[in-house]
Amino acid sequence: MAVLEVKDLATYYYLGGRELKAVDGVTFDIDQKRTLGLAGESGCGKTTTAYSIMRILAENGKIAGGSVNLGGLELTTLSDEEMRKVRWKKASIVFQYAMNAFNPVLRIGNQIVEVIREKDDVSEEEAIMTVSTLFDEVGLKPERQTDYPHEFSGGMLQRAIIAQALACDPQLIIADEPVTALDVIVQNKILDLLRKLQDKYNLAVLFITHDLSVVAENCHDVGIMYAGNLVEVGSVEAVFKRSLHPYSYKLIGAFPSVVGPKKRLEFIPGVPPNLLNFPSGCRFHPRCPFAQDICSKERPEFREIESGHYVMCHFAGELDLGGSQ
Amino acid sequence: MTSSDTILSVQNVRKWFSVRSGLLSFRKDKRYVKAVDDVSFDVPRGGSVAIAGESGCGKTTLARTILRLVEPTGGAAYYEGENIFDMNREELNALRLKMQLIFQNPFEVLDPRHTVVDLVGEGLVIHDLDVNDEVLYNNVIEALEDVRLIPGEDFATRYTHELSGGQLQRIAIARSLILNPNLIIADEPVSMLDASIRTEVMNLMTDLQKEKNLTYLFITHDLAQARYVGDYLIIMYLGRIAEMGPMEDVIQTPQHPYTKALVSNIPIPDPTIERERIMLPGETPTPIDLPPGCRFQPRCQEFGPQCKPDEPQLKEIAPGHYVACWFE
Question: Which positions in chain B have a beta carbon within 8 angstroms of at least one beta carbon in chain A?
Answer without folding.
Answer: 54-55, 164-166, 194-200, 202-203, 206, 221-225, 227-228, 248, 251, 261-263, 265-273, 275, 277, 279-280, 283-284
